[in-house]
UniProtKB/TrEMBL annotation:
InterPro entries assigned: MFS_dom, MFS_sugar_transport-like, MFS_Sugar_Transporters, MFS_trans_sf
GO terms for MF: carbohydrate:proton symporter activity
The name this protein goes by in its record: Major facilitator superfamily (MFS) profile domain-containing protein
Membrane topology classification: Multi-pass membrane protein
Main location: membrane
Membrane-spanning parts: 15-41, 61-85, 97-122
Domain of life from the UniProt record: Eukaryota
PANTHER family according to UniProt: MONOSACCHARIDE TRANSPORTER (HXT8), PUTATIVE (AFU_ORTHOLOGUE AFUA_2G08120)-RELATED, PLASTIDIC GLUCOSE TRANSPORTER 4
Localization in the cell: Membrane
Pfam families: Sugar_tr (PF00083)
One annotated Gene Ontology cellular component of this protein: membrane
Keywords annotated in UniProt: Membrane, Transmembrane, Transmembrane helix
Length: 130
C-alpha cells in the first residue's frame, strides 16, 4: 500500500505509520481536553469546591464560569494556531514544539492543582494555546 503525492510514491513503512499516529495524537488530546470537563460539570463536588451555586443568585456567575472554561480552551487554540506558525519560522519546528510541550505541562499542572476558579481558567487557556 502506498500513497501518491506529487507523482511520487510514499511507502507504507512502520516509520510512516508511527509518524501519522503521533501526529494524530495531537488532535486526539485536543478533543479529549475539550470534552473532559463535560463529565466534571455534572459532579456536585466540583461546584462546591469552587463555590459555584447553580441555584439562586449565583447561578448566572456559575453558568458564566462554565462557559468561560469551555470557551477559553477554544480561544487559546485559535491564538495558538496563529502564533505557532510565526514561532516555528523564527525558532524552528523542534524548539517550537518543545515550547508547546512545556506550555501543555504547565497548563495541566494549573488545571490539576487549581485552588481557585481563575487558576482553572488560566490552565484551560494555556492548554488551548499549547
Amino acid at each position: 500500500m502506498a500513497a501518491t503525492m506529487n507523482n511520487k510514491s510514499i511507502p507504507a513503512t512502520r516509520y510512516n505509520f508511527a509518524l501519522v499516529f503521533f501526529v494524530a495524537l495531537g488532535s486526539f488530546t485536543y478533543g479529549f481536553n475539550a470534552s473532559i470537563l463535560g463529565t466534571v460539570f455534572s459532579l456536585a463536588p466540583f461546584f462546591s469546591y469552587f463555590h459555584l451555586d447553580l441555584t439562586g443568585p449565583g447561578a448566572d456567575y456559575a453558568n458564566s464560569m462554565i462557559g468561560a472554561m469551555n470557551g477559553l480552551l477554544s480561544a487559546g487554540g485559535i491564538i495558538g494556531c496563529l502564533l505557532m506558525t510565526k514561532l516555528a519560522d523564527k525558532f524552528g519546528r523542534k524548539r517550537t514544539i518543545q515550547g508547546i510541550c512545556a506550555i501543555c505541562v504547565v497548563s495541566v499542572i494549573f488545571q490539576a492543582a487549581a485552588v481557585h476558579i481563575a487558576m482553572l481558567l488560566v490552565g484551560r487557556f494555556l492548554n488551548g494555546l499549547g
